[in-house]
Amino acid sequence: MLRIKSPVNGFHVTSFPLWQLGCLLDEVWLEEDVLNAMAELLYFRNCVTSEDTSFVYLPTLFFNDARCLFKNDPRTYSKNISNLRLRLSVAKATCIASVMWDHDHYSATFYQHHGSFEHGDSMLRSAPEGTLDVFHWLMAGLDYVLPQSLDTGDVGLQLLGGLGSCGVVAHNYVESRIDHSVPQWEAAASAHFRIGALRDLIIYHLSGLNSPVCIM
Fold it and tell me: Along the 216 residues of the chain, how does pLDDT read in single tens digits?
């Protein structure tokens, strides 16, 4: 029996009671902690199934914090940003993904080491102001090809339904980019994607482990 007030197990960047997983039912707005757990689980799974540590998936508030710091004069890196830059300099990343929250809406960015940088938005909105400039600042001085533009990514659209699922769609955009066997989110199948995420998080929690596991 699951105690709904018990904390979810096994995550390092997020913590929340199990009852919050209920936001994955129906078309309810996705709790940010739950979205971060989905991101961390995808990172774990990718490391285990492909033995690939070159994929970096940033938590939701990372980019918003960076945007705030970018506006300061002088601009200084926070401890989190400095740690990320150290990680990127020591171990080359081939992909850097981020789900961002802006104006009560989630969207995602996806960078590839050859310089491609895309923004995936299920409502076809533009990326938050200054996204490209902030990314250049984050990556300045590192041995990566800096993107010259922020392109529109191929993402499932909420125009015909699934109106509570922008976070699910943003995460699916990232997941389908690193695993081409994952289908793109569709409004008609929105419940399938939400229940799939709920299932995976519950199974991971029930593993009772504090280390990465593979959910197939």
Answer: 667 888 998 898 899 999 999 999 999 999 999 999 999 999 999 998 888 889 999 999 999 999 999 999 999 999 999 999 999 999 999 999 999 999 999 999 999 999 999 999 999 999 999 999 999 999 999 999 999 999 999 999 998 899 999 999 999 999 999 999 999 999 999 999 999 999 999 999 988 644 444 333
Residues sharing a CB contact under 8 Å with residue 44, sequence separation 6 or more, in sequence order: 212, 213
Q: All domains of the chain, ordered by start, with CATH?
A: 18-205 (3.40.395.10)
The reply to whether omega before 74 is within 30° of 0 (cis) is: yes
Which residue type occupies 187?
A: A
Number of residues that this document lists for the chain? 216
What does residue 31 show for φ and ψ, rounded to 5 degrees? -65, 140
| Distance (Å, whole) CA 134 – CA 115 | 15
